[in-house]
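BUG: 3D viewer hangs when loading the predicted structure for this chain

Environment: internal workstation, default settings.
Expected: structure renders.
Actual: progress bar stalls at 90%.

Input used:
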Amino acid sequence: MVTENYCKKTLFISVLICLFVFYSGFFEIPPRNPLKTIIPQEKINFISGELISSPVKSSSQRFYIASLKVNYVQSVEKIKSSSSGIQQIFIPTEMAEVFMPGKLYSNVKKENAFFYEKGGFYSFSGKMTNGIFFVEKCKSSFWKKTFWGKLNYFRALCRLELKRMLFSWGSAGGLFLALICGSREYIPIDVQNAFKNSGLSHILALSGMHLSLFGGIATFFGKKLKNRNFEIIFKTILLSFFIWFAGLSPSLLRAFICNIFIIAQVLSGAKKLDMVLILCFSFLFQAMISPTDLFNIGFMFSYGALFGILLTSEFIKKRISFMFPKFLSDSLSSSVGAQFLTIPISVKTFGTFTPIGIFSTVIVSPLVTFFIYSGLICFLLSLIFPLFISTSGIFMNFLYTLITKIVLFFSQFPLIEVFNATS
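C-alpha cells produced before the viewer hung:
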C-alpha cells in the first residue's frame, strides 16, 4: 500500500484530522443554513420559497423529499414572518407524481395539481414535525421571468419530456432514467433492493462513474478537434451540462470537483497528477462549501471507495495479477480496494456489509456502462427517427433483463450482519 508515502504530506494529514473532527462524535457541526424565523417551528403551518433540489422519492415511497430556500412562513394564528434558510420538505407521492407518465392520480384535485421541480417558487400549507415540513397542499407555483428562471423552467420541462419518452421503453426506460438523472420512481422496489443487497447501490446513485462516462464521451469528440485546449473546454461544458441537468448529489459534486481540479492542473502544464492529493483537496473543498454533505451516505461511500482504490489497488493487483488476466485483475483490485474503506462505513451505518459486492461490481459495472452508452445512442436515434422508439425499446429491455437477472442472482448471497443498526 502507498499510505506511508502520504503520511508526511500536509494535505493528507489535514484530511485525517478533519475526518476525526467530523466523525468522532466529540464535536458537533451545526447546519450551514438552518431555517431562521421568529415563529416557533412547531406553530408553522405555511411556508413559501424556492425549490433548490429536484424532489427525490423516499425509501418509504410515501413522499418526495426536496429542499426549499424559504422566503417567509406563517403560523397557525395567521402571523406572517419573513424567513431565511433551507428547509427540508416532504411532498406526498400522489401530489409530486401528478404529471408523470403512467403515474396520474385521479384523487388529486385540479387546483392542487402542480409541477414540482428545482428552480420553481412554491407556497405550501402543512405542518412542521421534528424539523421536517410535511406538505398537505400547494397554494401557488410560479417560475421567475428572469433568464435563470426561464432556464430552470426549460430544464424542468426537458426532464419531464425525457420521462415521457423513456416511459415508452418500459422497465428499461426506468433504469436508464435513474442512471442519467437520478430519478428512481420507475424502478420496481424489488429491483432497487436487489441492487442494494448485491452491493451495487452505488450504480443507481449518481456518482463519479456516471460523470466519467460523459467525460469519456467528451474526450472522444474533443480529440476530433485536434486541439488540446478546445478538448478541455468541450469536456468542461459537457460535464457542466450533465451536472446542471441531472442535479447535484453529494457524490456527483465530488466527481465534478475532482474533474475541475484535474482540468485546472492540465491547463497549468502539470506533468504528473497525484490523484490522492487531488481527492484530499476535493474533500476539504466540498466540506467547506457544502458541510451538510459530510453525513450523507453517498458522500461517505464516494470518497471512501475512491480513497480505497487509490491507496490499495496497486498493492492488491501485484499479488493477484499472476492468477488472472490483466483486465480481470485490474477490475478485482479496484473492487477490493473500494471495499477496503466502504466496509467500515457500511458496518457503522447499517450494521452489515455485502462481501459479494466485490464480485458483482466486476460483472455488473461493465454491463451498466454498455447499457448507458446504448441508451444514449438509442435515445438520439429515437429523437431523429421516431419510428425507432419501439425497436430501441426492445433492445434496451433485453439489456435490462440481462442486468436485473444477474443482479437478482447476486442478491441471493447473504449479507454479513455485525450488529443490529436499529437496536
